[in-house]
Structures are given as C-alpha cells and as structure tokens.
Design goal:
The chain has 6 helices and 4 strands; from the N terminus they run E-H-H-H-H-E-E-H-E-H. By secondary structure, it is of the alpha+beta class.
C-alpha cells in the first residue's frame, strides 16, 4: 500500500541524518502521547481521570531536542518587549480580515509550547515518519504522514514547524496542495509604531504608499 494514497503527508529534504534520528525519536513520542491523550479525553473527563497526564507539562519535551532544535525554539518574538506591545496594539487596531497578512506575521519561530499545543489540539492522528529510500535521488527525502479525523482539523502549520525545527526543508505539503514554503514576515517595527501612534490599523494598501 502506498501511504501517500491513503494519508495526508508532508514531504521534506533531510539536511542532516544525525538530526533526523533526533526527529524520529521526538515524532514517536509525540505519536504515542497524542494518541493516548485523545483516547483519554474521548473516554473520560480529564478532572475525573486519575491517570490523566498533561501532554505538554508532564513530559520533558526538551530532552528530545538536539542543541540546534533548542536554539530554534528559543529564537522567538518577545511579546512582552516594547516591540511586542506595539505589535499587540496594532493587531487590536487592525480589522480581522487583515490580521493574517505577512506584515503581521511576527519574525522568529514558534515557541515549543505553542507548537506542542497546536499539535495536541489538532484533530488528526500521527501515522508515520519515514526516510524515503526508493532510489538514490530520494535518499535524503523524508515524509511525515498523518490522518485528519474531520474537517476542519487544525491544519499542518505546527507539523511544518516541527519538521523545520530539526533542520529539514519542506518540499511539499499535501494540505495546501502546493509547495508550502514559509511565508516570510513583512513586519516593519518603525511603520507599526507610526500606525499605532496615529491610531490606525494595518491595511495592505499602506505598503503601496
């Protein structure tokens, strides 16, 4: 059976086989905990289940990261800084239709807890992480398979972040049906400060002026 005919998947280039081994260990732990946690939540309320473990707080996820992945998750946007406060004020001033624009995409990576939260809340099962070895050209290719349990199911962004955190380059994301290259941030702190000072929310046409 071809897994690509049955499941959603994200294909990526493996840039370091040593790091891929760390990634495999992280994925397998995520798969076990996510699937067990979903079963517990489906069968019994958390507060009445004596065996319940919080999927984020009760496991040492940092122990599954190599040094580069730890650095990745530490390279985040500081929402408590002056710049972060300006960002939040601008978001509040901006109409919801424009809040997903690249201008309001913060620089930096996801923090580990946010990524884990998104993965565990996603309505999908993790299936398999493999290194593709069909031919020489694909020896450095990997594929992450997952199965949505409904629609909407939360999307693939957190899984893409997980893949990249271990130094891999995403080539194809089935969920988006095209190359899911990372959308680069267009955040401009100076312009954001000016808009907040004027009490104006962001609109795309501002970038054309």
């Amino acid at each position: 059976m071809n897994l690509k005919d049955r499941y959603f998947y994200i294909e990526f280039e493996i840039l370091s086989l040593d790091r891929f081994e760390y990634f495999q260990k992280m994925f397998e732990k995520l798969k076990i905990i996510k699937n067990d946690w979903m079963n517990i939540c489906d069968s019994e309320k958390e507060e009445s289940n004596l065996d319940y473990q919080d999927p984020i707080e009760d496991f040492n996820w940092y122990s599954y990261l190599d040094n580069e992945a730890k650095a990745w998750f530490e390279d985040t946007f500081d929402y408590d800084s002056e710049e972060g406060i300006v960002y939040q004020k601008l978001c509040n001033l901006t109409h919801y239709e424009h809040r997903l624009h690249p201008f309001l995409r913060t620089p930096g990576n996801w923090d580990l807890e946010s990524m884990l939260h998104s993965i565990f809340c996603g309505e999908y099962c993790l299936i398999k992480l493999v290194r593709q070895e069909n031919n020489r050209e694909e020896n450095n290719r990997g594929c992450l398979y997952y199965e949505p349990m409904g629609h909407p199911f939360g999307g693939s962004d957190s899984l893409v972040e997980l893949i990249r955190a271990f130094g891999n380059r995403v080539i194809y994301d089935f969920y988006h049906e095209n190359d899911n290259l990372k959308i680069e941030s267009q955040w401009n702190y100076e312009l954001a400060k000016e808009l907040v000072k004027k009490g104006i929310g962001f609109t795309p046409d501002i970038l054309n002026n």
